[in-house]
Structure formats: structure tokens, C-alpha cells
Write a structure and sequence with these properties.
This protein is mainly beta. It contains one helix and twelve strands, in the order ββββββββββββα. The protein has a single domain, classed as Trefoil (Trefoil (Acidic Fibroblast Growth Factor, subunit A)). A six-stranded antiparallel sheet has the order 1-2-5-6-9-10, with no helix packed on it. A two-stranded antiparallel ribbon has the order 3-4. The radius of gyration is 15 Å and the shape is globular.
Amino acid sequence: MGTASAAAVKPDLYPNPGGDTPVYTWQNQGDGNYMEVQSSGTSNGDKIDVYKKTGSCAAHGATDTICNEEWYAISLGTNYDSVPEFAYMNVNSGLCLDDPGGGIGGHVEQWSCTTYPDTKRWLYDKSYSDQGPTNGYFNLWNLDNAEIACLHPGTAAISFYPRWVWSEGGVPAPLPTMYDCEWE
């Protein structure tokens, strides 16, 4: 796993035995756990949460049985600001991170990767606070709702919050901390 530093770093990258698509792990800076599909689910609509890294994919390869904390990064080109857009497919389930349309505090889930509408498009962007760039970590910003994926306070669930959640007001408490919305 990468270490915290002043320079922005990407998440862990492992060779993909099936091709050249990068494989990522996402460590949450709020609690140190890793993004995964809840209970290793393999169905559309299964919720995304965080869990301690199990090591099931430590030696990533054909013998792995449950690579639940690993995600293929599928490049979808760039947006109008030339920022790269991605879909993230879970190695275990073969389903993509998705916005089910629940709004602020709504859970991130997985869904079929057959098409890539904005609900499945993500920007992997440097984390910003109200005061500017933070500590070199990143936000996962969904294009459909323009919100970021954050650890929901007091739970293991990953939910959507406005990028400027700490200054916008009108967001129901409890609010995530800035670190709950940062990924390495």
C-alpha cells in the first residue's frame, strides 16, 4: 500500500493476468479500511462498503477466489476539462461502481457494466477542502450526481456527499470528515 506523502499518489496497482487493465485497491483515509462489495456480493444492487484488507488478492492471479477489494479501472476517455473518466469493475463480481440515484447519503452500489452512463462514470480527482488541496489523497467523484464517495459516519457503508459537504449547509448530520471522503 502506498504511504501518505505530500505528493499525490495513485492506489496500489497490480498486474492484471487477463490484460492491461489496471487493478486498484482503495484505502479509506478515515478508518484505513478498503473499499469492497458488502459480503462479497455478486448481484446488481449489492452495496459497497469498507472492510479490513483480507489479503485474498495479495498474490493477484488466476488462483484467487475472492478479490473483493480489487477494482479494474476501465478508461472511458476524458471530460470537457480533459480530466480522465473511469468505470471501476469489481474483480470478484465483474460489476461496476454505480450511483443508484439515492441522493445525499445514498449508498454506492454495484451494477452491470454493459454500458457506461454517467451513473458509472467516475473522476479520480485530488482531494480538496474549502481551503484548497489537501494531503495528496483523492476523491472518487461520480459524474451523474456530482457527489463524492465517502465513508458514511459510524458505519462501514460508502455513501454520496457533496464535494463541499463541510461548507454547503443543508446536509443532514452526521457529516463525514474530510478524511472519510479521501482514498489512497
